[in-house]
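Note to self: keep these together.
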Amino acid sequence: MSTNPEQKLRRVQALIAPGTPLREGLERILRGQTGALVVLGAGRAVTQLSTGGFELDTPFTPTALRELAKMDGAIIVTADLTRIVAAGVHLMPSSALVTDEVGTRHRTADRVSQQTGVPVVTVSSSMSTIALFLDGHRHLVDTSFQIISRANQALATYARYTERLLDVSRRLSILEAQDQVTLKDLAHVLQRLEMVRRLGHELEGYVVELGTDGRLLALQLHELEPGTDELLDLLLRDYPPTEEHRPDLLAELSSDELLDPQAVARAAGYPDPLDARLTVHGYRQLAQIQRLPTVVAERLLEHFGGLQGLMGATMAELLDVEGIGDSRARLVRDGLMRLSESIYET
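Structure:
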């Protein structure tokens, strides 16, 4: 299991998602109003906390899980959910572990998860809820209807943010063609890019939680995704940070900090004032020209010293560059012409 907490949570949520055998078994227990405590792992750490019960080692099925939940005690299954190891087990985790839970079943589940690092799922008959305990945190397992409702709101916001990102990116392209880019202009693009990235990450979590019910959401997310990772890479190549930069620094900004262009610029490695003028290399612009190999784009920018020099190049000058023939020279000229025309269309 991954050591990354978020990846670990996503992995377990996928096991409990609608359409999975475990989710089917848990929902049967919920409908039967019997309650349950299910430990999703059968290693040595769990065995040391276990006493009593019945050793089974039987294949995992939703029906078996439902029937065994009629007994008191915990049910222990293998981490891959292929076998039910034991049922009716009394778990005795350390009482020194801090928990905010009040019910006996939930307190036990929380402490067992903390002590062993193994996910534990509870079904509450009185509250009609399913909860996942993992690494000291309780995660309610919502119904598909509840998740889809939140996901649709996030998807609508994601679509608006994506459109806004495209708008500020187009404006940056125009300013690049005019050689009028400031750090504030770049910060606005980075700001919107990070907002879109965060919302996309949230939606990916909903897709995992929805399981088989999340296929439509996954298709919608894929259709709207603007290529944030590629865009960030190109921006950092066009405007190399003046300070040491880690790609995850933008992700570490708080929501309030993300609204501050100066904080965004500093996190991206640009400590200068927002009105500082920047000179673009042109990698992002040439990446928009289809069928132009990356190595050829790099050769062009190196030969002409950047976007401004390239935009002023004649056909004869383009043909002087290694790897540029008549067809590629026309391809570059037509692409740059469209960029120039967009200045007057906007």
